[in-house]
Amino acid sequence: MSLSFFNSLSGRKEAFQPRVAGKVGMYVCGVTVYDMCHIGHARAYVTADIIYRHLEASGLAVTYVRNFTDVDDKIIKRADEQGISVEQLTQKFIDEFYADMDALGNRRPQIEPRVTQHMADIVKTVEALIERGHAYEVEGDVYFDVASWPEYGKLSRRNLEDLKAGARVEVDPRKRSPLDFALWKASKPGEPMWSSPWGQGRPGWHIECTAMSAKYLGENFDIHGGGKDLVFPHHENEIAQAEAATGKPFCHTFFHNGFVNIDKEKMSKSLGNFFTIREIFERYDPEALRYFLLTTHYRSPISFEVEFVCSACQAALTRADVESRKCSACGAEMSEEEAGRAVRFPALDENQKRLEYLYTTRRRMNEFMGQAATGMGEMVRAEQVRGFKDRFLEAMDDDFNAAAALGVLADAMRLSNEVLDNKEGAAETLITSTIQSLQDTLFFMSSVLGILERDPALALESLSQRALGGASLDNEQIDGLIVERQQARANKDFARADAIRDQLTEMGVELMDSAGTTTWKIRT
Questions:
Q1: β 23-28/265-266 pair status
Q2: What is the mean pLDDT of residues 72-94?
Q3: CATH 3.40.50.1370 for domain 348-456
Q4: Is the pTM of this model over 0.90?
Q5: Domain spans of the chain?
Q6: Which of 28, 93, 140, 481 could be a cystine partner for 48, CB 3.0 to 4.6 Å?
Q7: Contact, 510 vs 523, CB < 8 A?
Q8: Alpha carbons 234 and 230: distance in angstroms, whole number
Q9: Dihedral angle at the C-alpha atoms of 505, 507, 510, 512, nearest 10 degrees?
C-alpha cells in the first residue's frame, strides 16, 4: 500500500506499514461522559472515522477501540449536583454521545470499553510500574515517577527542566516532583471506589487508556489518536506509563486533529463562543457539519465563523444585542428562544446548499438509470471517468486529505451533470455507461468520506426543512401562497400570481415551475 501518515511521534510524514500484514489496531481517546459533546468533539471523531473508513477501504482489517471515561472528578461533581448516581449520569451522556455521533455519520468502533469495567487491568498496570521502579505509593495514592523515565517529553518535545520551571508552586508536598502524576487516587468518603493493594480508590485519568489499549490491542499497536489538546499531558503520560511498564514501544503512529476556532479564537465557555453539537443540529442538517469538517485538512485548525441576524429586520446583530435581547437596528425585542435562534453559521449555510446540489445530482443519476438499460460499454470522456477513483485514493493516501478528496468528488459530480445534460450530443448508450461508472465511483467515495449515503429524496427534504427553520419561515404559509398562486394562474390573474412570487422571493423562497407543478427551496 502507498498510504502516508503524519506521525506526531516522529514529527514527519511516513509511509504507513501495519505491524501485522493486513491488520491494523487503532485506539482513539473517548469522551469523559458528564456533559453534551461540543463541535471540537465532532471534529475529533469525524477525523477518526474517515481514517477508519479509508483504512478499511484500502483492504485492511481494522480493530478500532474507543473508550468511555465513566469515573472522574467532574463526573462525581456533576452527579452530586444533580442528585443522581454516577452510573445514571454517565449512561445518560453515553446515550447522548451515540445520538450525536450517529447523526454525524460516524461508524461505531468494534470495541468501546468503559473505565469502570477495567479496574483489574488498571491495577495490574500500576503494579507493574511500581515493581519496575517507575511509580511509588503515598498514603493510598500512587504516582508515576517522571524522573525515572528519561524519554518523558518525546511526543510533546518538551524537556524536564522547562516543565519543572512551568510547574505550579502549590503542589502536593508528598510527591517527589511537581511533574509526577497520579496513577491511583485514594477515594474520599462518598466517592465511587474500588479495592487495590493501596486501599480503596479509583484510577488517575491517564492510566486508563494505557491499560485498556493494551488489553484489546496488545502492548504495541499501530495507531493512537485524538485532539491536539491531548498531546500533553494525556498522550505523553500514556506513552511513559506503557513503555515503562512493559519495556516495549507503545504505539507506532500518533495522529492529532487541529483545534476548532470560533471567529478566529479557540472555542471556550469563558469567551461565550461555545457550541454543542446538539445546538448545531437544532438549526442545521448534521451532514452539513460533517461536510464542513472535511473541508479542511484534519491537522490544520479550522475556523468556524458566527453571525447574528435579527429575525424581524434581517439586520446584523452584535453580541451585545443578543445578550440584551434587543435589536439595535429596528428595536425589536427578542425572547430567549429568539435570541438563541439569531445565531447563523455562514459555512454551514453554504454547506447545506452544497449538499443540496450534490444530492440533487445523485437523484438525477438515479432517475436516469431507473429508465435506462444497464450494461457497461464505451463512455463519454472515458479517461477522465476512470481517473476519478485513482485521484481520490491519491488524496486520501496522502495523510487522509479529505479536503482534496472532496475536490475530486466535486469534479465527478460536475461531469455527471454535464453528461446528463448531454452537452456533447452523445448516444444514450454512452451516457448510460458513463453514469453507471460514475455512480459506482461516487458510491465508493461517499462510503469513505461518510457523506451522500442517504436516500436523495429524504436528504433533500431534510435539507429543505433545515433551511426553512434557519430562515424562520413557516412551511404551511409558503405552501398556502403557492396554492394561491396556482389558482391565480389558472384564473389567468397573472398580476396576482407575479405578486405572490415577488412576496415569496422577498421571504427568501425560490420557486421552480415544471410540468404543471411548483416546487420550492430556501435561497442561501
A1: unpaired
A2: 96
A3: no
A4: no
A5: 4-262, 307-344, 348-456, 471-522
A6: 28
A7: yes
A8: 5
A9: -80
